[in-house]
């Protein structure tokens, strides 16, 4: 099993543990003549609001042997494209980017990544 596959399973299991139901693995969407696959689609019943919350999650491993800068460029580009597609085709879904904690605590604390994710 590759690190990417392992991280996918970790994120999926964490969502399930928090009460999310995985509805798509992957979540396929077609927009502007392009087919795309976001890693996961999920939903959760919010009892207090008597409604369902729907999300899509793109998972990025930021593997140690790869360049964090390059991985960030890829992740940011995918996020922007997927966000626009979801806004038009599935506006009820919120898009999230799942990354390793170590990446968040190091690379994502640098000024440029922080500015870009604001």
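Sequence proposed for the structure above (118 residues):
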């Amino acid at each position: 099993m590759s690190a990417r596959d392992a991280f996918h399973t970790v994120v999926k299991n964490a969502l399930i543990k928090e009460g999310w139901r995985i509805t798509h693995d992957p979540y396929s969407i077609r927009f502007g003549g392009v087919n795309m696959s976001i890693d996961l689609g999920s939903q959760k019943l919010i009892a207090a609001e008597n409604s369902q919350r729907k999300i899509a999650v793109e998972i990025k491993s930021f593997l140690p042997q790869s360049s964090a800068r390059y991985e960030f460029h890829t992740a940011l580009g995918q996020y922007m494209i997927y966000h626009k597609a979801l806004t038009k085709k599935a506006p009820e879904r919120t898009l999230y980017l799942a990354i390793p904690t170590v990446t968040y605590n190091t690379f994502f604390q640098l000024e440029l990544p922080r500015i870009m994710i604001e």
